[in-house]
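dumping the sequnces here before i forget
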Amino acid sequence: MKAGRGTRGRGAEAAGCAGPHARIDVPTLISADSVSTVSTLPAAIDPTELDLPGLEAALEARGHAPFRGRQIFRWLYRRDVTDFGAMTDLPQPLRAALTADFAVATPRLVQRERSVDGTEKFLFALADGRRIESVFIPDTPAMTFCVSTQVGCAMNCAFCLTAKMGLVRHLTAGEIVGQVRQLAGALGLRDRAFNIVLMGMGEPLHNYDQTMKALRILADRHGLAVPPRRVTLSTVGLVPAIERLAAEPLMPNLAVSLHAASDELRARLVPVGRKYGVQEIVEACRRLPLRHRRRITFEYVLLAGVNDAPSEAVRLARLLNGLRAKVNVIPLNAAPGIPFERPSDEAVDRFARALSEHGATVSVRKSRGRDIRAACGQLLVEGDRPSPAQQLAALLES
Ligand code: SAH
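..and the predicted 3d for all of it:
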């Protein structure tokens, strides 16, 4: 996981026209006479799965004043109160109605581990028992929460441990935001500014709608009020989704996991590279509306003897020529089951120097939390029944 460096995007949100954000999520209502048996009772509505317009619509559909949504948001996100009975500025009948019809699911903290470097890894159990991990990186230089967007991942990058889980399922917006609620609460940071990187388990653009809804919930000024400039979305480079992102009013900072400057090499490391070529990805990035000072980050996991030749660095610098870009070189975090090696510090320096000598802005990501397996690409949650790949990884480790 994550950013050895704070994602302090400073640009303003990209202006955009109405995109998918305009959709309002109104839970389906089941009329009273269709409720003939207990099994047809509508499931409780989880307000943390709704953005504010969605919550207002759900309240209105039940005959409540929509403005109550703002109050509920404040209780949920600013005060961490999920018991409607305790929302003391709501009228008593509304509290009772909410208690009957609504219920909040919060990822349950199962384990919290602290690295010698201060990084902390949080293991959560979701309502269906699936598990995910989030990481807190204390000083990069800002406080950063690295959160997951999927249980497992479908992208199958050759050097990533999460890939070994395959995709179990997408996370909901409430589960994505729920990690932030939990970390902010556990770390006492609810009233402080922090950054969020979508660099935990999963490919955020593969779970586009829920990820975008999560960003709207996070940004709401009645809630946690995390502006999109404090959020960095890291993607393997799904071009149509990057294009969709261009029209979002709440556009996060973008990081693209490139790892190679040529299609041949990239396809060996990132299977989806066969579908979207590096040139096509970079062109899509060039078309993104970027305000003054905003940069796109290109992540490059450095693998000894595979993609660490200075000639690759030169090719990469040329590819990014003219783009407001920064290359974040990430020396591999090795793990059992990952068939690559971390390059020597000299090789990392050589690569970074070649990039910068050819005009690229470069940073080298410092590994954080390696001792607790919280570093980039090390997030892997064992289920009840490990997949064959997980079993193999465990075997290799023993
Ligand atoms: N799916 C998204 C985000 C998740 S991973 C993406 O691909 O960007 C976040 C970053 O960690 C990515 O750049 C990913 O390539 C990198 N990463 C994965 N495995 C790693 C490993 N073993 N060592 C170092 N970085 C790794």
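Residues 49-101 form a domain with the DNA polymerase; domain 1 fold (CATH 1.10.150.530).
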